[in-house]
Amino acid sequence: MDATTTAGTLPAHGTVDPRGFKQGMRAMAGAVAILAAEDTEHGCFGLTATAVCSFSAEPPSLLACVHRNSTFASLTSQDMAFSVNLPAADQENVARVFGGMTTAKGVARFSAGSWVRGEAGAPLLVGARAVFECRVGEIIARASHLIVIGLVTGVTLDRAEREPIFYAHGRFVTSNFQ
């Protein structure tokens, strides 16, 4: 039995070592998504994220958690157009670039992969398994991250049958975890 079942209350906040928590979270395989947007002052910007999930089917919406210190977080604003791109396994290099695993920064990241502009202006990754075009519906600041709720305005299923990529134990893996 855990502390919640026995005592009926949660353990005191802050009693878990953050390093241990991070190591535990590395064991959880997360689907890889590339968030991308553009603004007139800074151009295109984006990042690779694993903290992305569906939020509601009615209205269609999703949420993404981004670190407060990221360029994406600092440039995110209410009603901003952005995309959530689910790359196929053969697009791992794009996920690496947007994940900061190369020297490419800012607009230079968009030299990886092929990108087109969506209806609302957000960059869309050509050949991704799925692409969600969104507008920021709400931004919630919690601890070290922003929770960005995206209202989905369009979905493209280009290669949904292709193998996805995940991130676990500090590396990209495919669905058969080879």
Automatic annotation (TrEMBL):
Signal peptide interval: none
The name under which this protein is listed is Flavin reductase like domain-containing protein
Organism whose genome encodes this protein: Mesorhizobium hungaricum
Q: Does the keyword Lipoprotein apply?
A: no
> Does the keyword section mention Nucleotidyltransferase?
no
Instruction: Identify the InterPro entries for this entry.
Output: Flavin_Rdtase-like_dom, NADH-dep_flavin_reductase, Split_barrel_FMN-bd
Listed GO MF terms: FMN binding; riboflavin reductase (NADPH) activity
Q: Which Pfam families match?
A: Flavin_Reduct (PF01613)
